[in-house]
Amino acid sequence: MKTDQIGPALQDKLGTDCVIANAQDIAAWTTDWRGMYRGQAAAVVRPRTARQVSECVAFCSANRIPVIPRGGNTGLCGAATPDDNPANVVISLDRMNAVKRIDPLANTMVAEAGCILGDLQRAVAEHDRLFPLSLAAEDSAQLGGNLATNAGGVNVLRYGMARDLVLGLEVVLPSGEIWNGLRTLRKDNTGYDMKHLFLGSEGTLGIITAAALKIFPATPARAVTLVAVESAQQALALLSVFQRYCGHQIDAFEYFSGACLELVLETNQALRSPFAGRHKGYVLIEVAGGGQEETLQQLVENALSESFERGTCIDAVIATSSSQAQALWQLREDISEAQRIDGPHLKHDISLPIERISEFIDITEERLFALDAGIRLYVFGHFGDGNLHYNLSRPRNSAADYFKNGKGDALTDLIMEQVASLGGSFSAEHGVGQLKRKYLRAYKSDLELRMMEGIKKMLDPAGIMNPGKIF
Question: Whole-model pTM?
Answer without folding.
Answer: 0.92
